[in-house]
Amino acid sequence: METKSTFFNKTAIVTGAGQGIGLKICEMLASEGARVILNDVDETLCKAAASSIQNKYGTCMAMAGDSSDPAFIQSLMDTCVGSWGKLDIAIANAGITLFGEFASYPVADFDRVMEVNLRGTYFLAQAASNQMKQQASGGSLLFTSSVTGHQAHKNLAAYGMSKAAIEMLAKNLVEELSTSRININTIAPGATLTERTLLDPSYIETWSRITPMGRPASVEDIGHAALFLVSEKARHITGQSLIIDGGWTSVSPTPY
Predict the structure, then answer these.
(1) Hey, which end of the chain has fewer CB within 10 Å, N or C?
(2) Alpha carbon 2 to chain centroid distance?
(3) Rounded Cα distance, 60 and 38, in Å
């Protein structure tokens, strides 16, 4: 007897998924039977990532655009429902990290971090949950936070503040969305091997040395946690943040 995949007939939207953690989550969802809309602000990256998933894993549609724009967010919803009839999972993964000293941090950088990390997450959650309420069949929201929302990290005051706020948003939405059978959680990755972090030639050595488990996370480590939290197995888990950092926040040694 053939067993259906974990996410068979589920539909999902994942923002900020052209590479790294978001891309891996899309790959894993598609390989488990989900139909996925992959979003990234970089059109070339977005189309290449979605095409690769479509060819290797399953159904994946590219939608390039700025996920901090509420009008674009609504177009994601409309396309998902228009194509597949429903939305089951929305993952607000898009984020931007702009380092800078607190004393001289530019207003433009602060605004952009808040637009992408907070406004994008807030209004994706709003649009997705409104659609899920109409369907009356529940659903799952997942936000990408960070260990910097739990522990101080030099030159990341604005970024850390935005990530802590995302976790508070998840807690607050429990009050408003639970009666609609919508659960909301966050993942808080620590040091993770991605295309961006590997631009630093010392990244692996540094984070292997200061991470209790002896290595930074892989994108698969983060992806497995994400898929659990949006699966039926986690339907009674809501308002929580899962730290995935190999133990770093327990001891918090500085990478400098």
Answers:
(1) N
(2) 31
(3) 7
The set of catalytic residues is 159
Domains of the chain and CATH, by start: 11-244 (3.40.50.720)
CB count within 10 Å of CB 52 equals 15
- Residue 244's φ and ψ, nearest 5 degrees, are -125, 90
CA separation for the pair 98, 52 (Å, rounded): 29
**Of 90, 91, 239, nearest in space to 177 by CA:** 239
| Global confidence as pTM | 0.95
Cite the DSSP H helix spans in the chain.
20-31, 43-56, 70-84, 107-114, 120-135, 157-177, 203-210, 219-229, 248-251
Which tokens is 100 given? 């800078």
Mean pLDDT of 35-48: 98
Q: Express each pLDDT in 217-246 by its tens digit.
A: 999 999 999 999 999 999 999 999 999 999
* pLDDT tens-place string over residues 71-97: 999 999 999 999 999 999 999 999 999
Query: What's the token pair of residue 222?
Result: 């983060």
* Closest among 100, 124, 123 to 113, alpha carbons compared: 100
Phi, psi of 223 (to 5 degrees): -60, -40
Amino acid letter, residue 98: L
SS3 category, 28:
helix
DSSP-assigned states of every residue in 154-182: TT-HHHHHHHHHHHHHHHHHHHHHGGGTE
Measured CA to CA, the distance from residue 192 to residue 189 in angstroms comes to: 7
Q: At what angle do helices 70-84 and 120-135 cross, to 10 degrees?
A: 30
Closest CA to 78 of 178, 136, 11: 11
Rg (alpha carbons) of the chain, rounded to whole number:
18
